[in-house]
Amino acid sequence: MKSLFCFRTVVLASLLLASGVATHADEGMWTFDNPPVKQLESRYHFTPTQEWLDHVRLSCVRLNDGGSGSFVSPDGLLLTNHHVARGQLQKNSTKEHDYVRDGFYAATRDQEMKSPDLEVDVLESMENVTAQVQAALKDVKDPQQELTVRRALIAKIERESLEKTGLRSDVVTLYQGGEYWLYRYKKYTDLRIVFAPEQQIAFFGGDPDNFTYPRYDLDMAFFRVYENGKPIHTPNYLKWNPNGAVDQDLVFVVGNPGSTQRLDTVAQLLNWRDDMLPNILTWLRHRREVLKAYSAQDPEQARQAGSLIFGLENSIKALDGEYKALNQPSIFDKKEAEEAEFRKLVAANPEWEQKYAPAWDQIAAAEREAATRKNYFFHRLDSTLEQLAVTIVQYVAEVKKPDGERLPGYHEAQLDSLRLRLFSPAPIYPAMEKAQMEGALELGLAKLGKDDEIIKTVLDGRTPHEAAEQLIDGTKLADPAVRKKLVEGGEQAVAESTDPLIVLARKLDPTLRAYQKWNEDHVESVIDRAGEALGKARFLAYGKSSYPDATFTLRLSYGKVDGYPMNGTIAPPKTTFFGLYDRAASFDYKGPFVLPARYADGRSKLDLSTPLDFVTTNDIIGGNSGSPVIDRKGELVGLIFDGNIESLAGSYVYDGATNRAVAVHSAGMTEALRKLYNAGSLLRELLGQ
Amino acid sequence: MKSLFCFRTVVLASLLLASGVATHADEGMWTFDNPPVKQLESRYHFTPTQEWLDHVRLSCVRLNDGGSGSFVSPDGLLLTNHHVARGQLQKNSTKEHDYVRDGFYAATRDQEMKSPDLEVDVLESMENVTAQVQAALKDVKDPQQELTVRRALIAKIERESLEKTGLRSDVVTLYQGGEYWLYRYKKYTDLRIVFAPEQQIAFFGGDPDNFTYPRYDLDMAFFRVYENGKPIHTPNYLKWNPNGAVDQDLVFVVGNPGSTQRLDTVAQLLNWRDDMLPNILTWLRHRREVLKAYSAQDPEQARQAGSLIFGLENSIKALDGEYKALNQPSIFDKKEAEEAEFRKLVAANPEWEQKYAPAWDQIAAAEREAATRKNYFFHRLDSTLEQLAVTIVQYVAEVKKPDGERLPGYHEAQLDSLRLRLFSPAPIYPAMEKAQMEGALELGLAKLGKDDEIIKTVLDGRTPHEAAEQLIDGTKLADPAVRKKLVEGGEQAVAESTDPLIVLARKLDPTLRAYQKWNEDHVESVIDRAGEALGKARFLAYGKSSYPDATFTLRLSYGKVDGYPMNGTIAPPKTTFFGLYDRAASFDYKGPFVLPARYADGRSKLDLSTPLDFVTTNDIIGGNSGSPVIDRKGELVGLIFDGNIESLAGSYVYDGATNRAVAVHSAGMTEALRKLYNAGSLLRELLGQ
Fold it and tell me: What is the mean pLDDT of residues B218-226?
């Protein structure tokens, strides 16, 4: 559940500027309406037919946990990463059965394990609604009003589409308002786990090896998608290629990159680098410490916190890499040079200069305004229960308003997904909630002081420890039935509730709304409008020969299997099982380099020269986890699970010399399933036998 | 044979300043008269006894090919690197027997293969002669005169010592004249090759993996030292430990680091970085291209050029790494900060300021003078035959002068070693000589122009191609007997010779001598004297708690087996045979990653988890190749053969966080000898059976 406070982060992170800058090498996260046909033909002598494009699009999915996946059999079998599935494995696990640690395999369908709150979307169609949106905004002068009008119109388009088709309907903003598209998804919410390996092989090498290559991870998992109690029939699926790809092969990645900032202005990047990123990193690191202390007290507590810590460490490493990238003169200089060139092109045309040039300064001014409240970032309480309480309080108020006037997240078309999360049966651990809330309040107190409105309201004269204890001990919101009852009881039930978290949420709500309004008025609306102007200027100056910043919607990227210069030498295009055993032995099987017993004992069963992981030049980013690697024939040759350390600059620039996507090799997956997991029925299904 | 033109490079590179700056971590290349006892006791709870120190000193050797080695049995068995032995293997090889490519093993002593021109020195004793030298220089005012007086005195000390003891006698300048020591060596010139593996496993990974880690090289070779036709008896030898060291073990490296510039002034480093290094790199790269073109014409030519190209690529990679290091603000800033601190300490004392502070500016002025002739670097002709001719012409003149007045290299005490090289029977390939000389003349022409004195004299109206062809085709100097006859015939024979190279050398000699004199007068003498002043200032300011810059003489370094942060993750403390097979397979056995047939076929015989290479924090540099890694007990646990990429900055600063020495693990050497080479007699000798 995203709290309102990270909304601005999301907005900021997804600020887009259309780029017509000539794209080099294998760059680009291409929308399916605008595939990189010219590049594919000239570099790889490959022409994707409409059939080919449709086939791969319909074979791929988005997982709302924040990743991607693909169908790999006609019976709804879905391949994704272990780390994307991990949350669901965690939620199914108990003290007695730790599916994260030990893995899981359903040899027959009736053993397949239901996932509490996973939604999967298949992109059925895309419709360009740019004209409609831009027409409505044409005569609106005021940025704040434009924000309102745009939201209302988007909500209307989504609602009407949902009513008409029954499909999940999202209007996607591309090129920062240069284009608006209506994406319709077939949505599935009954996913059952078929196979997951041990965490220790899915994430071999742990945090040290995360975001690096060479790598030796089997980061895979299989689900089956059900509907009405039966596996769905998936005529569009990727045929499993057990041999995989070789060095220099043309390959594609189809998935959902989350967000990039390649088209941010220099002012935006400066604010991000100097104000936002440091705060985010401080927060993430603090949370990690809190949860590590929690984990140290008890093995069961460690199990509970495992996935969260995993996610935090992943974010820390990624954002720290991004922070380092932005502090590299070579990268920042590049962004400044790009902006200078763009400004020059605009200035050369008096009409463009007059219409669009003010946008840069408007954005810079809005960023300065935003920076005055940068520490409001520390209003977060890091508590699932508190977030649920706030959502409930707002929900019952928002649903009474006309759709177009609601806060983001509460529009008609979004309610299904919201309710799925709101009423999820996933367990919530009170002791962990207390530890996290207490830690958040301590950090908030340190950063904002005791007279801060939010801090003061939450603490209400108590210490962070006392406040957290009383709120968590007193609340009943951990029970989804209680939450459901409140929501069904509407505003009255909520107003009458004595649940301490609901009481607190009622108190906080006006302030939260005020802060959000201030942000919309002073920052978001200004940046949206100015960004849209720059988006138009970009189309005029450069034409539409490029791709938009990532938006956690379906993209196609192309590239080849290829090593790269690393550490004074060359990283190879693939690794083998030999390397897994080498790395484990070279650390004497300690720490994150321990081998699961299955691998230690089963070594002689394997052909160790089988490829395990490999790297490609495909342009991807977080969100692409679980994406399939597809060859020319449209077959599955690999499974994306990471990027190398050099790819962390990819939020800002793509450098084809060293930026690599990291994938599990289909030969490695096949070898492991066959020789170590004896997953006969799964293999037969994959191989179409 | 070092030409006169690289003399200044050697001088520059060995300019030393005593440092009393507190040394951190496991830093330091310690002389045996000043071992790091305090550090060893406090960090490792180890106290080296005089017995222990003497034992390891007398077990270790210097190879005049430019490396180190150690005795590993009581019968003169010597361990060093394959790449140190390679030159000798190359010189023994023919078109029919390529010992570099195929390796060599003498199962019995009579098969052991003699090396044409390898000298090995054992450091028998060290005597401090500082007082004697400084007394002679006390009243000499003039820097040029000081140079002359110092040289004459040093030559005298060496000559008298040689006459008295029969031992090779070198006066070593430490702390840039802060100290002078007389080192006496027992010298051996009859070395016979016992074992060398295939080049492809000694240097697995080739140029890409050179100077990097993780690594999978078996860079080892064994010689036996003979005297009077019999193996020498070596009561001081290192006992072979077949299990080797483990992570965090205390280890020592005893060997001959060649040169460092840690105590250079900022002015010296700037000249080195901006004038010298670029020229050297240009030259090396040009030579590599010339030799690669030569190699491409014919497999036999490729064999001839192999070792040279190997050496060039090694130097290019190392110097390029050093160049990059000096262009890193973090490193250069560090050197500037060190100098600023030193200047401050000196300035705080009026007497020191008056006596020593002018030295910095004097050095800077000399560097500026040197820079005016930086392109004289390109006077070199890259021809072994031409260098032999110049040596002969100068030799017959110099030996007629009193010892103290001779050019460096021609002093009485140096003549044995000089003659060994001058009359070496190692083959010289005329076609390769022509190619190299032609290439050198083309580069010289481009850099200096056709009116340059040396270029004009050599070309004499011809093109580079014509000149090279006529000179090499016309000379008979490839025959050592011819060279010997000329030298024995003295100045008259040389003056009468019509050999075109001798004729050329006679013409060039006055100019070469003039350039050398100019360099001595304007640069070397000034820097020597000013450097000596700074050396004294350093002792005064910091005391003698540190170590001198490297001087290609015996040093002790200490450290531990330890991984380090690399590539966003951790490099492990060791690698295993698993890793060798992984790296080979991951590149599909292509290029520098091909596996020798013995390893491809014999994989199942090996325990693949056996350690192959490992890293330690020991402070080493080029020249340490072949040094033993020794444990607390004085046993041999490894064999140094490289440094990681982060160690290339070690010429200038030691960074214990990432600087690592790279060694072959004794367990890996034992496993290979036993299981793949069936080297039964060699193993029995090593294990004392």
Answer: 97
Indicate yes or no: CB of A582 within 8 angstroms of CB of B585: no
> Phi, psi at residue B385, to the nearest 5°?
-65, -40
Write out chain B residues lying below 8 Å of A572, CB-based.
Answer: 583, 586-587, 593
Closest CA to B78 of B238, B303, B296, B306: B238
A-chain CB neighbours of B668 within 8 Å are none
CA distance linking residue A454 with residue A458, whole number of Å? 6
Inter-axis angle of helices A384-398 and A464-474, nearest 10: 60
DSSP state of B594: P
Chain A residues whose CB is inside 8 A of the B204 CB are none
Q: How far is CA B528 from CA B15, B177, B266, B345, B523, in A?
A: 8, 8, 16, 22, 8
Cβ pair A596, A650 in contact under 8 A: no
Instruction: Give the helix ranges, DSSP H, for A166-253.
Output: 199-202, 206-209
Collapsing DSSP to helix, strand or coil, A259 comes out as coil
Dihedral sign, Cα of residue B380, residue B386, residue B391, residue B394: negative
Helix (H, G, I), strand (E, B) or coil at B575: strand
Tokens of B268: 């010296």
Contact A203, A310 (CB under 8 A): yes
Among chain A residues, CA nearest to B318: A568
CB nearest A568 (choices: B573, B579, B645): B645
Alpha carbon A75 to chain centroid distance?
27
* B464-485 pLDDT tens trace: 999 999 999 999 999 999 999 9
Chain A residue closest to B210 (CA)? Answer: A569
| Angstrom distances, CA of residue A81 to CA of A381, A627, B521 | 30, 8, 71
CA torsion B458→B462→B465→B467, rounded to 10°? Answer: -40
ipTM of the complex: 0.87
Q: Tell me how far apart the alpha carbons of residues B515 and B3 are, in angstroms, rounded to a whole number.
A: 13
The DSSP code for B338 is: H
Residue of A nearest to B324 (CA): A568
What's the token pair of residue B335? 């050197």
Interface of B with A (CB under 8 A): 205, 208-209, 211-212, 214, 247, 317, 321, 563, 566-570, 572-576, 578-579, 581-583, 585-588, 593, 608-609, 611, 644-645
Across the interface, of A567, A587, A611, the residue whose CB is closest to B212 is A567
The whole-number pLDDT of residue B12 equals 30
Nearest residue on chain B to A648, alpha-carbon basis: B568
Nearest to A574 among B317, B563, B586 (CB): B586
Confirm if A303 and A93 have CB atoms less than 8 A apart. yes
3-state secondary structure of A626: coil
Q: Which chain A residue's Cα is nearest to B317?
A: A568
**How deeply is B333 buried, as exposed, middle or buried, from its count of CB atoms within 10 A (0-12, 13-18, 19+)?**
exposed
Are A578 and B573 an interchain contact pair (Cβ–Cβ within 8 Å)?
no
| A329 chain-B contacts, CB cut-off 8 A | none
Contact at CB, A212 and B574, closer than 8 angstroms: no
Q: What is the pLDDT of residues B402-416, one digit of tens each?
A: 998 999 999 988 898
| Residue B260 structure tokens | 């460092």
Interface of A with B (CB under 8 A): 205, 208-209, 211-212, 214, 246-247, 317, 321, 563, 566-570, 572-576, 578-579, 581-583, 585-588, 608-609, 611, 644-645
* Residue-wise DSSP of A91-156: HH--SS--HHHH-EE-SSGGGPEEPSS--EEEEEEEEE-HHHHHHHHTT---HHHHHHHHHHHHHH
pLDDT in tens, B357-386: 999 999 999 999 999 999 999 999 999 999
